[in-house]
Amino acid sequence: MTQLRRELAHFRSYPHDMRILLLTNLLYALVLPVIDIFVGAYVMRNSQDVRMVVVYQLAVYTGIPLTFLLNGYLLKFVEIKRLYSLGMLLSGFSMAVMMSLGTLSLTGVGIAGVLMGISFGLFWANRDFLALSTTTDENRNYYYGVETFFYTNTYVIVPMLAGWFIHQVGTAGWFGGERNTAYQIVTVVVFMITIVASVVVHRGQFQNPPNTQFVFFRFHWLWNRMQLLAILKGLAQGYIVTAPAMLVMRLVGEEGALGAIQAIGGILSAFLLYVVGRVAKPEHRLAIFSLGLALFALGGLANAALFNATGVLLFMICLLLSRPLHDIAYFPIQMLVIDTVSEIEQRNKFAYIASQELGFYIGRFAGCMLFIVLATAISDTFALRYALLLIGIVQLLAIPVASQVLKGCSAVRDEPTSSE
After folding, report:
1. Please, is 279 exposed, middle or buried when counting C-beta atoms within 10 Å of its C-beta (0-12, 13-18, 19+)?
2. With the CA atoms of 51, 86, 359 and 287 taken in that order, what torsion angle do they form, in degrees rounded to the nearest 10?
3. What is the secondary structure of 86-147 as a DSSP string?
4. Is the pLDDT of residue 397 over 50?
5. What CA–CA distances, in Å, run from 342 to 348, 349, 351, 355, 413?
């Protein structure tokens, strides 16, 4: 209890708006696992087509960058916390649209996906700017450590509870024994949580970005390297959101097992990652970044080598560690580069946030298309088995690029006029 009180006191020592943002993200962290995992499982269960799951994800990813641009214009007229809360509320609404579809079709799945992409675009565009504006380079490791602690725990607990509930509805006959009814009930709970999160975020005194131009096509060389990192990160995002659901539904069999697999090792990793964020310094970011990518590649290798329930288990354990480790390092690096380059180019910082989303989209699109091409040209099984390994190997290229970016930040601050 003494240690807990010490950690709470440490949390309260940070600025009010930073704490409000973290509390809002804690609430929304209860929603994201449902959206990321069980929406894909719902599409898989009702279509029995892994390609339709990937089409849904492509629709989501298409809506995100377009909404980033729209959000930039809306920020000239609407408070940022209102747009932020609208994004959270829309995620619940888009889930409701998906669950209301009688028969899944490419058109219906695509529309639901675009709606979810719009909600994510509003959420992430404003969340990223608020994280940038309410933190400094010195406290960003802690910020992302706490945020990752939230997300890692909820990615264990929420899938376990939701998976158990959906399983019980189907096997114990709750609510008529209809699993789609279970998905609809989960959707209602998700919508209620987004309402609470929207109320909390309005307690912050957040400032909109300056009302200046935010669309540019030429950037400092350092930002171009950061865009390459975004593409490599997006490559995994394009497939990783739906991969766990597809693998479990194919090799393990049901949503209850999906939740149980997420739980194994997850709680321990959450506390480990909190400690990493608490004690790590800016100079440790490259090592953390490299470890996260190495674990992802190792998980992809286990899945490809075994391609059974054990392989899925090993992959999920690696994923539970690799994703948050990668994020703890990636986002502080991204914000350091934005701070550095925006000072040199004298541009609105939101311009870099919007630009980075294009890099993510290119990578996500490439990741999704890799799966579709492998599934169409060879087989679904081949794509599920080897796509993760291929992506993991390619992502390792991000390590030398990240090293160059970090060295470049120091060099550019000494020579602020150098650019290309």
Report:
1. exposed
2. -100
3. HHHHHHHHHHHHHHH-SS--HHHHHHHHHHHHHHHHHHHHHHHHHHHHH--TTTHHHHHHHH
4. yes
5. 7, 6, 9, 13, 11
Tokens representing 265? 């090792």
Average pLDDT over residues 258-283: 68
Cβ pair 284, 144 in contact under 8 A: no
Q: Is 396 helix (H, G, I), strand (E, B) or coil?
A: coil
Q: Which candidate, 340, 346, 322, 335, places its Cα nearest to that of 395?
A: 322
Summarize the confidence of residues 383-399 as an average pLDDT.
Answer: 90
pLDDT at residue 420 above 50? no
**What pLDDT does 200 receive?**
92
Sign of CA dihedral 286, 3, 25, 98: positive
Least confident of 41-45, 67-71, 145-149, 184-188: 41-45
**C-alpha–C-alpha distance, residues 104 and 46, integer Å:** 7
Nearest to 226 by CA among 353, 60, 416: 353
The most distant pair of C-alpha atoms in the chain lies apart, rounded to whole Å, by 68
- The top-scoring range by mean pLDDT among 102-116, 122-136, 240-254 is 122-136
Q: Are 151 and 324 in contact (CB under 8 A)?
A: yes
Distance CA 94, CA 98 (A): 6
CATH 3.40.190.120 for the 10-202+217-413 domain, yes or no: no
Residue 100: partners with Cβ closer than 8 Å, 6 or more residues away: none
Burial state string for 24-57 with b = 16 or more CB within 10 A and e = fewer than 16: bbbbbbbbbbbbbbbbbbbbbbbbebbbbbbbbb
